[in-house]
Amino acid sequence: MGSALIDPLTRKLESFGSLSTVEQAALRRTEGTRVPIERHHDIVSAGDQPRSVNVLLEGFACTYTLLPEGKRQITFFHLPGDVLDLPSLFIPVMDYSLCSLAHSQLLRIPHEAMLALFHEHPRITHLFWRETLIYAAIFREWMVGIGRRPAFASVAHLFCELIVRMQAIGLAVDHQVDLPLTQADIGDALGLSSVHVNRTLQELRGAGLIKMTRSRLRAIDWHGLCDAGEFDDSYLHQQQMG
Amino acid sequence: MGSALIDPLTRKLESFGSLSTVEQAALRRTEGTRVPIERHHDIVSAGDQPRSVNVLLEGFACTYTLLPEGKRQITFFHLPGDVLDLPSLFIPVMDYSLCSLAHSQLLRIPHEAMLALFHEHPRITHLFWRETLIYAAIFREWMVGIGRRPAFASVAHLFCELIVRMQAIGLAVDHQVDLPLTQADIGDALGLSSVHVNRTLQELRGAGLIKMTRSRLRAIDWHGLCDAGEFDDSYLHQQQMG
DNA sequence: CGGGAGGTTGAAATCACTCAATTAGAGTGG
DNA sequence: CCACTCTAATTGAGTGATTTCAACCTCCCG
């Protein structure tokens, strides 16, 4: 059943480590329910105690936290192949919320199935742990950007990260990606107001670094964009580059 | 040899999950070399490819990243019991640097010994993984603070986090802790200038929330401090509270 | 041809930064 | 025990980045 469905997960895991045929087969055999989800719907909310884990098969999602005054901080953008709520396997209560940013497809896998997979395949366990550690590296890089980089560099860096991550799973060609992000989303990720994001995007366009329509981002000058964002992809620890 | 030394690690692991006597014994049996380290010395640097892992036995350390222009972003404060460079087990090249903030004691454990421990004790593996996930939750909370909270709340939140984490390992009594942080360190962690940190600390003192000497922090009004920082300790997922 | 979400613009206000000088403290050597 | 020194804390003034508020525009979709 999961057969073709779980492919994005396999592809993602293989973007930073290799799997044996046996392990690939075990992943494919893992049971799960396909769940479609509309744009801008919560997938899991802070405080929930999930009994299953959600794999993003298609679409786009984000992790976020809401502050008392109503401000929002997005703490991660999830791409196809990501396990959205892996922490729920080891930490019963969710401390963050998840929201779809585009019409998406999820694969819902029961905790038991996931834990059985880990039990039987230690290398898969290590790959998932490795993924957790790479996410932590991405978090650190976001902290650097939010804390110490001015808006221009910060936005450039985010775009570089997303393009490289999309490329690693085959969803970007030629530094060009579908990005269903509003300027408010970008601002909430980088700690900026949407007005300031708007002006910063104009600067990036003016500098000839990017072209951007409603839902498509293209890096016209990839090296220039990397420079502007002080971007060095080594922290993403990709096995291969696109 | 590691016998008495590894205790802080055991205590830390038990602060968010329980260990059997067998598992505790296995941890105690793990070989390692004790290494003292001066204040303000790098323990590991970005780009290194360590063959061993460092446990902080005593003292205080931080993870940081240096930007081209010389700015620094601290991305984590490590307390006794923390494994400082666990990622090096699964990710060969370090993407961050580590620095001691006080005279400290390390326990250096070879990668093989660590991996053997994981191989033989799956529950220890899961506890360490759980620790990694809790760190990720702390990272998210830092992003929220850096990105969306004004300085006053941001500093208050950081102090709350450190006091609770110190309490969990028995190093804080009565909301009072030894904190060998300069105002520049605090600023580099929160994305603020040291001048602004100075003024913010004066406000916190003026509001009757804290008392602070060079290396000692005391929350005079714990609830007030939590309010000011919008602090809710659930994201730290502590097993027990001190 | 509305309606609504998201993008764009301008002006005023604010938070935080930089620069530069001064003070306080802790440790050291004589 | 006192000068000396270095690091860290403090202060003031001027600047700059980013926010807020509020209005207006534009595009997409039904």
Strand order of the largest sheet of chain A: 2-6-4-5
Instruction: Please state the CA-atom Rg of chain A, rounded to the nearest Å.
Output: 18 Å
Task: Give the chain pair forming the largest contact, with residue counts.
Answer: A-B, 44 and 44 residues
**Uncertain runs of chain A:** none
Question: Total number of β-strand segments of chain A?
Answer: 10
- The SSE order of chain A reads HHEEEEEEEHHHEHHEEH
Main sheet specs of chain A:
4 strands, antiparallel
**CATH homology superfamily of the largest domain in chain A:** Jelly Rolls
- Percent range of helical residues of chain A: 40-55%
Mean pLDDT of chain A: 94
What shape does the CA trace of chain A take? globular
CATH architecture of the largest domain in chain A: Sandwich
**How big a fraction of the residues of chain A is strand?**
15-25%
Q: Helical segment tally of chain A?
A: 8
The level-1 CATH class of the largest domain in chain A: Mainly Beta
Instruction: Report how far the terminal alpha carbons of chain A are from each other.
Output: 30 Å
Structural class of chain A: alpha+beta
For the record, the count of structural domains of chain A works out to 2
Oligomer: homodimer
Per CATH, what is the topology of the largest domain in chain A? Jelly Rolls
